[in-house]
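User: Before I run my own analysis I want an independent prediction to cross-check against. Here's the chain; please return only the structure tokens and, at the end, one sentence I can use as a sanity check.
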Amino acid sequence: MSVWEILADALRNAVGPGAAAYALAAIGLNVHYGYTGLINFGQAGYMMLGAYGVAVTVAFGGPIWAGLLVAVILSIVFSLMLGIPTLRLRGDYLAICTIAAAEILRLFFRSDIAAPVTKGVNGIQRFADAFYALNPIPRGYYGVGVLRWDESTLWVMAWAWGLVLMGTVIVFGLMRSPWGRVIISVREDEYVARSVGKNVFGLKLQSLLIGGLFGSAAGVVLALSQQAVSTEAFMPEVTFFAYAALMLGGVGRTWGPALGAVVFWLVLSAFDSILRSGVESGAISSDIIGDADVGVFRFVLVGLGLLALVAFLPRGILGTIGRRA
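Assistant: Structure tokens:
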């Protein structure tokens, strides 16, 4: 595989639906952690609710719009169930509760009790035909050179990145409103905010709900783009991938989540292609890395890259550029 082919493959993934989904999840985490100071390690739970909300509704004969409504309702209910008993906790304690809640939800969805609805470990497949039937793009391939997509992929990309743009604009407006300024004050010092009469608990709950809706939207994008949902796609590391994207772009920066998601998937895909090419050509000994080990080693390399990021760009790309400017 040539350098150009590796770069082209990485670029396709960097602007694909998967990157857009993680950008949405990172936008939600930016509301939680970047602006409010809430350490939410359960974003994968919101993504799973969004994905299953659409998949189950459509699989049982409902329209796509009803699936989106169900995803929103499930996200709101989960925020209330998670936030009311836990948001008085801070720091590590809140993080433990959120990751535990998401994992409990995942294990319930794959259990025999929920299997009649969620299909258990097998998940739900081929449920988004009605969504693709709405595609106005004529059949064919579009793009430049090797950066080409068919009409179905382009339809999902346009829809997904449109949601990212809309979410970014919404967060931009919210954080420059009086509500957003109070939210930021809670992040800086919640005791000061409480001393001037602000309902800190209520503000945190509102932030959790808004950020969770973005996480649910991320799950919807993943479900529709893959035409399949399963509980194994929403393991705890999914949340940490979204955090990695957020840190890459810049915590507390409006465009940080979108930029971070693109860079994260660009680097991850490039490492994957380089390792696979090296194993296939014999440049990397199969005794060191086999075909089955490539997926693991690419995350090792990404992890080393994140360590370098913390050392040299601790505020992320946009955060560091903004500070120097």
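Sanity check: The domain at 3-324 is CATH 1.10.3470 (ABC transporter involved in vitamin B12 uptake, BtuC).
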